[in-house]
Amino acid sequence: MRIAVIPGDGIGKEVTEAAMLILENLDLPFEYVWLEAGDEAEKKYGKPLPDETLEEVKRCKAVLFGAAGETAADVIVKLRQELETYANVRPAKSFEGVKSIHKNVDMVIVRENTECLYKGIEFEVDGVAEAVRIISRKASERIVRFAFELAKREKRKRVTALHKANVMRKTCGLFKRVFYEVAREYERIEANDYYIDAACMYIAMDPWRFDVIVTTNMFGDIVSDLAAGIVGGLGLAPSANIGDEYAIFEPVHGAAFDIAGKGIANPTAMILTASMMLRHLGFEEEAKKVEKAVEKVLAEGKTTPDLGGNLKTMEMAEEILKAI
Amino acid sequence: MRIAVIPGDGIGKEVTEAAMLILENLDLPFEYVWLEAGDEAEKKYGKPLPDETLEEVKRCKAVLFGAAGETAADVIVKLRQELETYANVRPAKSFEGVKSIHKNVDMVIVRENTECLYKGIEFEVDGVAEAVRIISRKASERIVRFAFELAKREKRKRVTALHKANVMRKTCGLFKRVFYEVAREYERIEANDYYIDAACMYIAMDPWRFDVIVTTNMFGDIVSDLAAGIVGGLGLAPSANIGDEYAIFEPVHGAAFDIAGKGIANPTAMILTASMMLRHLGFEEEAKKVEKAVEKVLAEGKTTPDLGGNLKTMEMAEEILKAI
Ligand SMILES: CC(C)[C@H](C(=O)O)[C@@H](O)C(=O)O
Ligand SMILES: CC(C)[C@H](C(=O)O)[C@@H](O)C(=O)O
């Protein structure tokens, strides 16, 4: 099974090395294809997402992606759209032993990944710039169904749609309407909805009211960082971009140039991202093993400086490996 | 001086009554013009913002607005645009005696109030809905300058722009460019910027890095609810919509039908809103008096059920009145 590995820029490289230490020590039938993308790739090849990378990626079953710097949007948004990975799945879960604003949070954000303001349709004329937000019935139905199927599979009780249908009556209105249409097919799962502004307040104040969240692209971008924030920050937040054919796995964090090269980045987000990849590819047992090991290490208070610990990136990875 | 008072729907009525108790007990040269808008107005007149209300409002110096229900967008967004109140000012400040996620927070969000996705330009064709996000140089310059002037007046140290210029290069790009252009005129105030997603995470995890925030309409909507959330919730969050000619003062909260009619709504947001109105109209001393009284009452632990107290709406207002 061919797996594309794209470390990218900044701490992307460091956390990829850490995740690879774990993967290479599990008995997996993977063939790793190392590829370039990001700021450095742009310097070398004139393009942040070189054609060769894009071609190679399409011959792989999954992509493990570290982070890109200034060119992040050109790389990751393009990859998501090219590979039609329409569902961006971002769990926000608290861990024992980690200082965080709230405890016992366990939600999953399902973010539509192909349209909304991310289509990149923009104009500027005479000092007035316009961006077009596209919301289609097709993509909305697909992402809402994905969210309910995820809820069913993970035995979750509720799916909540976030929107701003009082202001965007047509675009958010369509999304909300489709949400309740699809919800009717899942009688045993509760369906409700919030305005995006109120939802952000509640994610901060009372995150336990959320279980699975489904929302459009830009709102999903915002709530996933916020939700990561209340459970301890980006050092712990993994994500998966799932399509019918391809899948891309990347931590929610970026290249973090301020701490890059020091070997102190928290590899946990990337290791949990690798575990999401394992589960997606059918290696449930291995995925669980990695998660349990991460939980154990964090519960013992072993961690990197971002969470108050003193482990270096690779030391943290080694602790997790030992715990497997 | 003519002041339009629009209680509106739900708890809007209750908190307006509470704020009026305070205002009527201060020695102010105001003539109050009571007007209707909202769900009930729609039922009575067929329009949530009756023509008469709009005409009368334009003969007043300021509008004190409670809340509207289902029709909120038709009322408040329309009012903001009709009256060209281009700056939505939303302080988020922690109070002693109030349980909140964070302490010692003191930021002001300055939200552009006339354009962005709030223009209401939307279409739907064959299952694809589109919304147009408008960002103009003119409105961006105006709001950024407003934010820096506010920072100067309130002796604040930093203005932070929030945007998503890596994805919306033209619209957010324009906003960001204009931000730094204007910033150059204010040498003694620090200027920086964040991506909206990262900013939401930091508002939750580390709000002290923000002082004045300036952002476009939809992002401003989101971060103002979020910022209210980390300092104790919507029960305490006031706001002002400021234009060159008119001004509208409204709490950040809505009609809250779930608790309406019970007399338990927290009137603090509305009373602080009235105090913002007093300051805007030149009654600085009275504005301070009201704020100090609110601080004192909250510090004594006297409050409504939303913050764990047992005072009713009017009891809370009376406590504040006594403390003045
Ligand atoms: C880098 C950026 C384009 C990206 C996004 O907005 O999707 C990032 O914030 C994320 O959430 O993965
Ligand atoms: C009611 C709604 C239209 C309004 C807005 O989005 O501006 C509200 O959320 C607010 O923040 O005042």
Q: How does this structure look, described?
A:
The structure is a homodimer of 324-residue chains. Chain A is of the alpha/beta class and 324 residues long. Chain A has 2 domains: 1-93 and 235-324, Isopropylmalate Dehydrogenase, CATH 3.40.718; 101-230, 3-Layer(aba) Sandwich (Isopropylmalate Dehydrogenase), CATH 3.40.718.10. Helix content of chain A is 41%, strand content 20%. Chain A has a 10-stranded mixed β-sheet with strand order 2-1-3-12-11-4-5-10-8-9, sandwiched between helices. Chain A has a two-stranded antiparallel ribbon with strand order 6-7. In chain A, helix 5 (137-153) crosses helix 6 and helix 7 (196-205) packs parallel to helix 8 (217-230). The longest helix of chain A has 17 residues, at 137-153. Chain A starts with a strand and ends with a helix. At the A-B interface, helix 4, strand 6, strand 7, helix 6 and helix 7 of A face helix 4, strand 6, strand 7, helix 6 and helix 7 of B. Strand 7 of chain A pairs antiparallel with strand 7 of chain B. The structure holds 3-isopropylmalic acid (IPM) (2 copies).
